[in-house]
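Recap quiz, item 2
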Amino acid sequence: MSEEPLFDPSLKKRKKKKTVAFSEDPLGADADPTTPAPESIDDVTADGVAVNMGSKTLHEQLASEKQSAKVGGEDEEENEFGDLKKKKKKKTIPLDLPEEGSGRSTPVGEGDDLDFSDLKKKKKKKKDIPLDLPEEGSGAATPVEGAATEDLDFSDLKKKKKSSKKKANLDMEAFERELSESKTKEEDEGEEEGEANAAAFNDIDETEHGENPFARSEEPAHQGSDSEPWLGSDRDYTYPELLRRFYSQLHAANPTLLANSGKRYVIAPPSVAREGNKKTMFANVSDICKRMHRPPEHAIQYLFAELGTTGSVDGAGRLIIRGKFQQKQIENVLRHYITEYVACKMCKSHDTLLTKENRIFFVSCESCGSRRSVNAIKTGFQAQVGKRIKNKTG
Amino acid sequence: MNVQNFATFDPFADEGDALAAANQDVGSQSNYIHVRVQQRNGRKTLTTLQGLPKEYDAKKLLKAFKKEFACNGTLVDDEEAGQVIQLQGDQRQKISAFLVEEGIPRATIKIHGF
């Protein structure tokens, strides 16, 4: 009650301490709209399917952090709120699946290679060769085994690489061929496909959901074990299976495709800070609006309507919002704003203009030329909160 | 002889406000069920449900909500929004789940807020 825990970053605890003084809040579980992300996430879904939820052990996390840092440096367009996610990673909340999947499946070569050399120091010699990434990806992307087996996997990989090193064969294709020879064929294919599948499916999902620019979907990655199940039986293949096969082959054939499709809409993460006890400051609102090509008033109006609160813009162009809000909450609202008022519904482009004609807002796409009307922002019913005495009419 | 006044069709007639019609199309929020959340003092919140279709009895629904979510709530009459269900706490996901379970299409439920 007396002093604020400086070290504690989570708002929730602070609030609890303030209001209830270390006792459990009876309303707590229900009333808290800001349930924080769980500290650690099981990588097995309810039906027992293993999902790659990112790194679990410190070791893995270190590796993935390095990797993501590198990948992020290479194609920054890929992850929206890049810095934010990195920050989150430091907080050890392994959440962002699609990004990692795509990051691993983009066989950029050097970054990952370096990464691996960091992970296992013995492989330093191979820095100049773009290694076969499908296998690396599969090693990392099959989360069915824990960390221990993953280690095994790596050592396996290493051995193979050593054998190939002896032959001093630097040709990429020959290298791949050797690897596939050393492995059993189906296994290799299956894993490769599964890995590509996961990436492809994540892509699909994202585009289907209106391409959330801050996307952090947590769909379970499709396992590659059922890549071509129709081979064994005499049944016909289904459409999803064929689609999966198509994507896997497409991405296997031209791996640059994934990297190119990663050209996505980036927005700086909203910098949100508490101002005083009951106000929240949203500092870079004008930057974000500039990035979205939207008048700040429009976005601010939407923010206020969605958050059900009021606020003002201070002299330095920062937005002061009444009420306590966390960054992720603001981010969520912004995400909705973008899907509703910025993104083009036809081509998913964010290069759009908002015009007003006869009291109706229209969004016209700059890249595909489509035009659509958007809903006016309405606050809707606002319940009476706070003291009644302040409200003269009530 | 052609007298304009006798014609059944009046070319200058007011064809209705085209704008109004468009407005109704565009800004129509009436067919959505809006579920909003509002912050109160501290970490307390308030959930409002607006735009319930006429065929549902708001009073009974409120009673069911209160029992199901173990929270208090009230029915507020608003001039614009009509009857609004107001519940204590952040019940947005629960409301949405409840309504979907009762057969209201998910597309008509709009959840606002953070």
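The mean pLDDT of chain A is 61.
The first strand of chain A starts at residue 272 and ends at 275.
End of item.
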